[in-house]
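Slack export, channel: ligand-projects

TW: morning all. Re-posting the request from yesterday since it got buried. We need the structure predicted with the small molecule present, not the apo form. The ligand is flavin-adenine dinucleotide; the SMILES is in the block with the sequence. No rush, but it would help planning for next week.
GE: picking it up
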Amino acid sequence: MASVLIVEGSIGEILESITVAKLVGGEPVVLAYGSAAKSGDLGSIGARVYKLDAIHPDPIFNAVKKLYEEIKPIVVVGHGSKNNRDVLSRLAGLYDLPMGTDITKVVEASDSYVVYERGFLSERAVAQEKVPLPAVLLVNAKVFEPASPAGASEVVELPVEEGQVKLVGRLEKQLSGINLEEAEIIVGVGRGFKKKEDLKLAFELAELLGAQVGATRPIAADYKWLPEDAWIGISGKRVAPKLYIAVGISGAPQHMAGVNNAKIIVAVNKDKSAPIFKFADYGVVADLYQFLPVLIKKLKERKGQ
Ligand SMILES: Cc1cc2nc3c(=O)[nH]c(=O)nc-3n(C[C@H](O)[C@H](O)[C@H](O)COP(=O)(O)OP(=O)(O)OC[C@H]3O[C@@H](n4cnc5c(N)ncnc54)[C@H](O)[C@@H]3O)c2cc1C
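GE: finished. pasting the full token output, ligand included:
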């Protein structure tokens, strides 16, 4: 059976990519790097696994290139993380492979081609493309059901072959405690909030709902009222919560590209013609400063607080 090479930095991504490998009809062979390479779960995912203790694109690319030449996969799959975009576009360039990005569905596959769907125009439109194999496919997070771990796997450690860029040290990133990719409920805040202190309304709501707080680019990047980890959108995080509550957010396409995998969107905006209402499942036309305190009070009453 033909092989599908999976290149990922986390266990969750690997399991989603195994689903893609099965849809394409190939035997998954996994290259796990970064935190995935350190995970104890690697031994039970039920695929041949190569682990590489590296986080820099150069050694990851060197390993991918070697494995590509060795196993000659019909498809190379990875999520669209920064490392994968870097490494797998180099691979596609080197071997002249077609490369699909932002893939949300595998429509059809044979020995010689694959048909997939991908979002474009900030994911407001869907394109169906057919490409010959071998090909590189970058898939979106949380759209493919993760495969169930299928028992014992053979795990082989690969040597780290540095490239021209050498890692001279590591500075720990300040942890913000925000993990929007895993959040089931997100309260998104935008420029409808007039000052940083007012965000406490959003945090209070989030605490009552067991939610995390995310933000539009101006809030995180321009005003710096929240850490960059909270930034949602085309140039920030792409999230897929069950519920996204957008408060004081206009609904710019660059922001909505980050939340279009949310199951339900609720928008609170005082302008009834705000574009967010076109995307929202439920809309509340209200001043957030009047609406949020009432909502918070009602939720507290329900919880007996
Ligand atoms: C290349 C590029 C990349 C970008 N990437 C991103 C990205 O990744 N993420 C992102 O978010 N943006 C991104 N942007 C910016 C994007 O275009 C928008 O400018 C931004 O999303 C708008 O943020 P906002 O909704 O908070 O602010 P605004 O557009 O100013 O909207 C504020 C909203 O709040 C409402 N409002 C005001 N007061 C109240 C109140 N009291 N109660 C209720 N509602 C109120 C207003 O009616 C308005 O609709 C990008 C732009 C470019 C050019």
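GE: first-pass observations. Residues 190-192, 216-218, 232-236, 248-250, 252, 254-255, 258, 268-271, 274, 287-289 surround flavin-adenine dinucleotide (CB under 6 Å). DSSP finds nine helices and 14 strands in the chain.
TW: perfect, thank you
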